[in-house]
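sanity check this record:
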Amino acid sequence: MGHPAPMLLGWRLWVSLCSVASTGNSRIGVTRRSVLIARTIATTARPIALNARTIALTAALAFALAGFPARAQSAPPASTQAATPTAQSAQPAASTAELPDAPGVAAAARTEPVPTGPTIVIDTTMGRLICKTFDRQAPNAVANFIGLAEGTKDWTINATHAKQHGKRFYDGLTFHRVIPGFMIQGGDPVGDGTGDPGYYFDDEITPGLTFSMGGRLAYANSGPNTNGSQFFITEDAFAELNGKYTIFGQCDAHSTLLAASIARVTRDANDKPTTPVVIQRVTIVREGQQMPPLPIPSAPAPVPANQQ
């Protein structure tokens, strides 16, 4: 029996090549399949001398099929990826200790104490100052100010050394030192920055309570542990004061603005106001108590007849 017709052999060659190209395409590399295809061409075409053009076209198509399946499976479908955990997703999540703190956490860590003690009301000839005390952070400092203000703490007149009992200390004193952009200072019975109540008490420095804002109410001193009666109210934040002065209160926004106004009055070379800013009365308002009424403005002094 003679050889099959060339066309029939061509189809047989095509079927054989396609079978090799599609077998195990997920396991066999393109190079290996190419070798198998070449062997198939040689085996199938050996019995008959096929048309060179037919063999060439068939081989080209088969080689193309050999590479196509491998490229199509290089990335699985999206649904397959979603259903199959990757090595990265299978790893345990990093602990929070290895990650930087979120801004909210850092801000919370820097939150300073809130004043919870009695309120100090200082009525002056230029208006009212209202400051809430830090009785938990500076209990001795708060108790000292309240005792002097209400006359429940004894004090001594500097000039005569006479002990005063049951006498209110701050009423009638002045703000003897004012510096624009910095602070106003008062509570000196002498009026020049040298006075005191006849005693000193130790500092109460709380690390978390700083001069981070305006309106801080703190004791003036002449060095460590020399607190007495003099106090100051800041106009703005001053980090350079941290750790050096005992903060015992925080004034409200209106009072901070008033302190800034007092600091800008006309003053002499020693920063003392040329027109005294007088502390008319200091009132301590405890929880549940009402604020005192505003003082009645004093009538202006009559103008002398020779100046009319």
